[in-house]
Amino acid sequence: MKTAEVTNHTVILSAMVLLAVAPSCQSSEAATGATDSKAPPGQVWLTPAQVAQSKIEVTTVGEQVVEDSIVTSGTISLDDLRSGHVFSPVTGRVVKIIAQLGQHVKKGDPLATIESPDIGQAVSDTHKAEADLIAAEHDLRRKRELFAQKAAAAADVEASEDTERNAKAELERARQKQFLLRVGNVDAVSQTYTFPAPIDGEVLLRNINPGVEVQGQYSGGAGNNCIPGLTTNAVCGELFTIGELDKVWMLGDVYEIDLPRVHVGATARVTTIAHPGQVFTGTVDWISGALDPNTRTAKVRCTFDNPDGILRPMMYATAAITADQRKSVAIPRSAVVRLGDYKVVFVQIGEAGGQVRFERLPVLLDESLAGLYVGVKHGVDAGQKVVSNGADVLAQQM
Questions:
Q1: Of 66, 157, 288, 317, which residue is 20 to 30 A from 175 by alpha carbon distance?
Q2: pTM for the whole thing?
């Protein structure tokens, strides 16, 4: 009996030991498994589901076209070859407005009509010059006949010839002025002058209304009347602006130090305050040959399309002008994460155990260049898979 009792106690103790050891073994195995699945420092391991949920995207590192851009500010302007500015050649009063703002006109279409005494004066000057020439020719003819009969001195004939030449010159001047005014459809009887449209286009600006006095560019004394401060009720300057908005200019300033890197034909990406986020792509077609002595900058003109007409003259704009282009090992700018003074990227190093593994690598970049890609000096090599979207999410997992 004693031997059997000892045996039973031994079995019971063994069972209790096994029950006590079993949970600790299971905990050890669980701990071992957890250690195996934990990412080492500098790495992040995610399941494919987590990768998809975080919208992480990778891009293979390779050579890309990187470019250097020069950013300048300026204003939108009309294309000078596709715009016309109308001034009044004569002084008068506006009696009729024919073309309205926003109206499309053809070259030669009437814009407005004024009544002007300068019209009648121009015709009168021509008729007077014609009469003076006829009188000078008659006088010269008589002097020559008298001189042939030795009844007049040679000096009288020469004086008569001089008078005739002066009369011819005055007649030519009067006819040229009348012809200049006749380009605007002069009616000498009613003394009205009609402004013609200089080009095809839209009426963008109108500075006159019926009854307003306008000062002429060619009439006598108009210069003094157009001095600012001396004219209160008269319009001295531009009356109409006709132009097309489907192609416009952007005029910017480039500093002297950047001029060697700007070339005609370079691409220019223009943005405006009025339309944030919208980029208009154009081309540099002119660079000024002289610098502004005060700002030490040169004017640069960019031409670009404006099919919707949403860009208007005098809008403020910013242009990024492409200076240089070259191929280099580059990564998307969105792949770069800034950690204090350091810049890092995440690269995909493989998959194991049902997890996608990413590693953080410090990089040295050439950030002097602009564009969607940034050149890599050190840190990653061509062929590696760099995280181009979602790098911030991985940085938060570290």
A1: 157
A2: 0.55
